[in-house]
């Protein structure tokens, strides 16, 4: 039996992850009292039910002071020969605050009503779980379908997983540099399809624009050097414990050149199959909206 302990920060997607595992035929229990964790694992390990092959337990800050006892429970389970994996879901503080405001729910540790205070307390209380985690997924930039894809890769397909989630983001400088960008690259030095009448209404998603931008030795050299540098940086960021990396590529309007180079970098990174990779074009449609 495969046993997964699903934990992390409130608002980072734990409940969603449990529902996804349940869809994948895991027997899921949420907010199980800490004193019952050991008994549940023993019971499931000895189960003869053919329908119950895998199980997941949701544990978080709602356990209160009992959460401090979990480390002892986990050590005991390991000593008894039980195997388990820990999935830790995380997200940036500002995103967690935003999600709580949108849901109008109160944070379980925000006794004074301040969500950010509750998040800080929760980070301290769950730090031991983060350190022991087998998988850390930062959901800051993940869509629901992207989270499902990662969970299926790990817990259904038994695929290779890295705790680093990389977002390749195209944008337009005239709409501002993305606030969450870790690395920003300016490709406004490349020939601009905007000045070609038949290409102006198209985007970097169209092959005509893509070919126009990449049919240039400087663009190809830049793409190769960018690919080389990023592949050098990623494992070093990962060694320092970074779990989310946003690589932003910008041109004037975020419609032609940045989209093209973001596509090129995404395709090269996804070939490695070592990290979670997502592609987003932030400003690709803004030019058309403004004209309306």
From TrEMBL:
Keyword RNA-binding annotated: no
Transmembrane segments: none
InterPro entries cross-referenced by the UniProt entry: P-loop_NTPase, RapZ-like, RapZ-like_N, RapZ_C
Annotated keywords: ATP-binding, GTP-binding, Kinase, Nucleotide-binding, Transferase
UniProt-listed Gene3D superfamilies: P-loop containing nucleotide triphosphate hydrolases
Positions bound to ATP: 8-15
MF (Gene Ontology): ATP binding; GTP binding; kinase activity
Pfam families the UniProt entry points to: PapZ_C, RapZ-like_N
Residues noted as binding GTP in the record, renumbered to the chain: 60-63
Taxonomy, superkingdom: Bacteria
Residue intervals of the RapZ C-terminal domain: 164-284
Domain RapZ-like N-terminal residue range list: 1-158
HAMAP family noted in UniProt: RapZ_like
Name of this protein: Predicted P-loop-containing kinase
Lineage start: Bacteria, Bacillati, Bacillota, Clostridia, Lachnospirales
């Amino acid at each position: 039996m495969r046993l997964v302990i699903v934990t992390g920060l409130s608002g980072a997607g734990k409940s969603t992850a449990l529902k996804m595992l349940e869809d994948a035929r895991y027997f899921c229990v949420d907010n199980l009292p800490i004193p019952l964790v050991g008994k549940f694992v023993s019971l499931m390990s000895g189960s003869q039910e053919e329908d119950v092959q895998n199980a997941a337990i949701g544990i978080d800050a709602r356990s209160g002071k009992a959460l401090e006892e979990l480390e002892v429970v986990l050590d005991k389970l390991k000593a008894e020969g039980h195997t388990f994996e820990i999935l830790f879901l995380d997200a940036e503080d500002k995103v967690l605050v935003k999600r709580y405001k949108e849901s109008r729910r109160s944070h379980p540790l925000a006794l004074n009503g301040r969500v950010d205070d509750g998040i800080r307390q929760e980070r301290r209380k769950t730090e031991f779980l983060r350190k022991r985690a087998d998988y850390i997924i930062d959901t800051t930039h993940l869509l629901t379908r992207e989270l499902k894809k990662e969970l299926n890769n790990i817990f259904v397909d038994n695929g290779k997983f890295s705790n680093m989630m990389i977002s390749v983001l195209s944008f337009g400088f005239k709409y501002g540099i993305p606030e969450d960008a870790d690395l920003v690259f300016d490709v406004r030095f490349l020939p601009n399809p905007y000045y070609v009448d038949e290409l102006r209404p198209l985007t970097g998603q169209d092959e005509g624009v893509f070919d126009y931008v990449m049919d240039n030795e400087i663009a190809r050299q830049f793409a190769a050097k960018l690919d080389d540098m990023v592949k050098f940086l990623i494992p070093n960021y990962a060694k320092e414990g970074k779990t989310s990396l946003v690589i932003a590529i910008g041109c004037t309007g975020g419609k032609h050149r940045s989209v093209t180079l973001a596509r090129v970098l995404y395709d090269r990174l996804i070939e490695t199959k070592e990290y979670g990779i997502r592609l987003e074009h932030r400003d690709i449609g803004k030019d058309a909206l403004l004209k309306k």
